[in-house]
From TrEMBL:
The keyword Signal applies. Keywords: Signal. SUPFAM superfamilies: Periplasmic binding protein-like I (SSF53822). The lineage of its organism: Bacteria, Pseudomonadati, Pseudomonadota, Betaproteobacteria, Burkholderiales. This is Urea ABC transporter substrate-binding protein. It comes from Ramlibacter cellulosilyticus. The gene is urtA. Residues 1-25 form the signal peptide.
Length: 424
C-alpha cells in the first residue's frame, strides 16, 4: 500500500513537471523576507542587520529549521528610498509569499511599510529604537521605545553623575523619529523646569555632510553660562562628518557631552574616536557588556563574518544594539511559530505574547503580552578610544516599554495594545 502511494505521488510529480507546474520543493521551505537598505545613506547602519538575520536563519536551519522546514531568506534592497520600502514589502508579501519580514531602520521607512503589512496582513519585526506613538497588530517592535532610551539618557545627563546639564541642544536628521522624540523630550525637559530659552533645536537632511555651521552654533549656545549637553538623533552616514567636526572643533565630552540614540559600534567604525572619548550613547545592548551569552554571540558573529567575508567585519567584527534586536526577533518568531504549530500570521501573533529569549545583553528579553514591544534593559555607555563603549549607567533589570509617551497630551486615553489597524 505504501509503495503504491509512493509510485502515484512520483507519477503525479512527473506529470506536473512536464506541464510546467511549480516545483513541489518550494513547499519544503518557509520564505522569510529581509527588508534593509543595502545602498544609499542608511546602508552604513542597515547592511549588517541583513547579515545578522542571515546568520540567525543559518543557525536555525543547521538545527533542523522550523516545523521540519528550512527557512529560505528573500533579501531585497529598498536603497534608502522610503516609497521603495512599500513597493518591496508588497513584492515580498504578494509575489515571494514570505511568512514574515525582518527589516527597516528609519521610522519613515517603517511608516511607508505599515499600511502595506496591515492591508495584506503581513508580519514585520522592527529592530531599531524609535519614537513610539504607534501600535500595530502586524508589527513587533524589538528596539527601544522612548522610555527605554531617550528619557533615561536625558535623566542621566541632568544627574550629578551625568554632569548636571541645564541647557540642551536637540540635534537630529529631519524626519519623524527625531522630530517626535524631540517633541517628547521638550515636554519632559519642561516638566523638569527647563526654560524654552535653554533648548536649541536643529535638523539636517539625510546624507548631510557639512556640520561646521551647526557645531559653531552649538559652541556659541554652550558658552552662554550653563552646563550644556547635546542630544543627537542624527541617523545614517551623516554621523561620520558630524563626529569628525565635533573632534575638529575641540568640543570635548567634559565640556559639552553628546549623547547619541542612533550611533553605536558600527557607525563609529569610520571615525577617529580618540577626540570623542567620553561622549555617550544610550542603547539596550553594547558589544562590551560582559556575560557568557554575549561572549557566545560575539564569537559566533566573528566566525560568521570571517566565513562569509563580510566587508569590514571579517577583520574587525563588531556587534551592536540593532543587531541584537534583529537576532532576538528572528528567534522569537521561530519560537512563536513552533508554539502556534503554524506560520499563519494571526496564529503567530497570538503566540508571540510572553515569548522570552536569553539576550546577549545579559538579561532575558520578554515580548509584552499586550503591546508588541520587548521588555529591555537600558545602558548608557561612554565612547572609548577603540570605538567601544564603557557602560557608566544601567537599569537594574528590563524596563517595560511605553509606546504612548506620558509626555504627549492625550496619550493617557490610548489603549496599550493593538486592535487591528495601527493607531497613529
Amino acid at each position: 500500500m505504501q509503495r503504491r502511494f509512493t509510485l502515484q505521488a512520483l507519477t503525479a510529480a512527473v506529470v506536473l513537471a512536464a506541464a510546467g507546474a511549480p516545483a513541489l520543493a518550494a513547499d519544503d521551505t518557509i520564505k522569510v523576507g529581509i527588508l534593509h537598505s543595502l545602498s544609499g545613506t542608511m546602508a552604513i547602519s542597515e547592511t549588517v542587520l541583513k547579515d545578522t538575520a542571515l546568520m540567525a536563519i543559518e543557525e536555525i536551519n543547521a538545527k533542523g529549521g522550523v516545523l521540519g522546514k528550512k527557512l529560505e531568506p528573500v533579501v531585497v534592497d529598498p536603497a534608502s528610498n522610503w516609497p521603495l520600502f512599500a513597493e518591496k514589502t508588497k513584492q515580498l508579501l504578494t509575489q515571494d509569499k514570505v511568512a514574515v519580514m525582518f527589516g527597516c531602520w528609519t521610522s519613515v521607512s517603517r511608516k511607508s511599510v505599515l499600511p502595506v503589512v496591515e492591508e495584506l496582513n503581513g508580519l514585520l519585526f522592527y529592530p531599531v529604537q524609535y519614537e513610539g506613538e504607534e501600535l500595530s497588530k502586524n508589527v513587533f517592535y524589538t528596539g527601544a521605545a522612548p522610555n527605554q532610551q531617550a528619557i533615561p539618557a536625558v535623566e542621566y545627563l541632568m544627574s550629578k553623575d551625568g554632569g548636571g546639564a541645564k541647557r540642551f541642544v536637540l540635534l537630529g536628521t529631519d524626519y519623524v523619529y527625531p522630530r517626535t522624540t524631540n517633541k517628547i523630550l521638550r515636554a519632559f525637559l519642561k516638566s523638569k523646569g527647563v526654560a524654552e530659552s535653554d533648548i536649541m533645536e536643529e535638523y539636517t537632511p539625510f546624507g548631510h555632510a557639512d556640520y561646521q555651521t551647526i557645531i559653531a552654533k552649538v559652541k556659541k549656545f554652550s558658552s552662554e553660562g550653563k552646563k550644556t549637553a547635546v542630544i543627537s538623533t542624527i541617523n545614517g552616514d551623516s554621523n561620520v562628518p558630524f563626529y569628525k567636526e565635533l573632534g575638529n572643533a575641540g568640543l570635548k565630552a567634559k565640556d559639552v557631552p553628546v549623547v547619541a540614540f542612533s550611533v553605536g559600534e558600527e557607525e563609529l567604525r569610520g571615525v577617529d574616536t580618540k577626540p570623542l572619548v567620553g561622549h555617550l550613547a544610550a542603547w539596550n545592548y553594547f558589544m562590551s557588556v560582559k556575560n557568557p551569552t554575549n561572549d557566545e554571540f560575539t564569537k559566533k558573529w566573528a566566525a560568521y563574518a570571517k566565513a562569509k567575508n563580510i566587508a569590514g567585519h571579517k577583520d574587525k567584527p563588531l556587534t551592536n544594539d540593532p543587531m541584537e534586536a534583529t537576532y532576538i526577533g528572528v528567534y522569537m518568531w521561530k519560537q512563536a511559530v513552533e508554539k502556534a504549530k503554524s506560520t499563519d500570521v494571526d496564529k503567530v501573533i497570538a503566540a508571540m505574547g510572553g515569548q522570552t529569549f536569553k539576550a546577549p545583553s545579559g538579561f532575558t528579553a520578554k515580548m509584552d503580552e499586550k503591546n508588541h514591544h520587548l521588555h529591555k534593559p537600558v545602558f548608557i555607555g561612554e565612547v572609548k578610544s577603540d570605538g567601544q563603549f564603557n557602560v557608566v549607567w544601567k537599569t537594574p533589570g528590563p524596563v517595560k516599554a511605553k509606546p504612548w509617551s506620558p509626555f504627549i497630551e492625550g496619550n493617557d486615553k490610548k489603549k496599550d495594545e493593538p486592535d487591528g489597524k495601527s493607531k497613529l
